[in-house]
Automatic annotation (TrEMBL):
Gene3D superfamilies, sorted: GIY-YIG endonuclease, UvrC, RNAse H endonuclease domain
A GO term for molecular function: excinuclease ABC activity
Every UVR domain range: 211-246
Domain UvrC family homology region profile: 114-348
SMART domains given in the database record: GIYc
Biological process per Gene Ontology, one example term: nucleotide-excision repair
The protein, known as: Excinuclease ABC subunit C
PANTHER family xref list: UVRABC SYSTEM PROTEIN C, UVRC/OXIDOREDUCTASE
Gene Ontology CC: one annotated term: excinuclease repair complex
Amino acid sequence: MSTIAKQLKNFPEESGVYFFLGAKKEMLYVGKATSLRSRVHSYLGKDLAITRGPLLVKMIAEAASIEYRKTDSVLEALILEADLIKKFKPPYNTEGKDDKSFNCVVITKEDFPQVLIIRKKDLDSSIIPNSKFLIHSWFGPFPHGLQLQEALKIIRKIFPYRDSKCRPLQGRPCFNRQIGLCPGVCTGEISKEEYAKTIRNIKLLFQNKKGAILKSLERDMKTFAKAREFEKADELKRKIFALQHIQDVALIKRESSAFSGREFRIEAYDVAHISGKEMVAVMTVVSDGTPAKSEYRKFKVKSVYGANDTAALAEALDRRLAHSEWPMPRLIVVDGAVAQKNAAEAVLKKYGFIIPVVAVTKDAYHRPKGILGERAFIAAHEKEILLANSEAHRFSIAFHRKRLQKGFLGN
């Protein structure tokens, strides 16, 4: 630990990836960061077991040193992190997790390739599930699913590409063509050869070869300028500028919310059903006293039959903890009593997380009448606990009603 603390002094406040190394210089863990120094410093805090779990506490105890590699942007750090995980398979990036559940970026094998996100478990075949398309190449797996989606939004603004909703040469613009995210595959505005250059650049970006892209774009820009095709030259000039100044604000925001030491995040869970029918569960989030509605999640309960609320809660929490890219809570709230509290704590124990759980008990009219759990957390956060629980109940009822209505209309 003292060695790592000393090495940390030389870390920059810039984006990049960091590697915790063992006594034999083997890679134990790799991570990405908006600020390398700030991120690594968070591993030295006393609350690491709560914020990141006991697995990483064990990793820190084994680590003998730490190194880093700077990148020009968080986007490139995200790509480099996935590449290093795939190459070295660091034990603490994969232990307790199945990387087959992680997402990959797939490029199809056809005249106008699609760029898609596919789960690694679905890549066992050379054919994309539920389609006739062959896989030409794939990148990943990426452990941070939501951040990968943000990354592709950034890439697509620089290199517009075709997705599954665009049919080549259909004669009318698809929605993404109308907003500038499709290069005109649907309308025939781009040739197969020109589109192939776009796909090549996307592949190079995922291979951490931004320099090769810039050289190619600069060469083509000069060729167009020499031929007095100034519109095409200006377009390439804009792409070069965008690559050199990647605006990954969304990634930085998500990165900061995931690991901020100041944020007190509460997650609340609730289950809704009628005699076990159309059973659903939800997760709501209150961050520093404010509902974070964009982070609410819905779960259609799959493994439970009959009116078993505790089993449904356990399934929802189990599926939530499989998402290592989601920020970890400092406190979990469940709706119910001792049984629900025990069910949540059992799932947390299975994954090795030390996160306090409180249960909000209700009266005959489903109004809060008490809170079970550690008194210190209840006293400090009672208002936020009740808010999170109320939001979870509201959200679960709304989701359940929607499922019932869908089932009724389906009949």
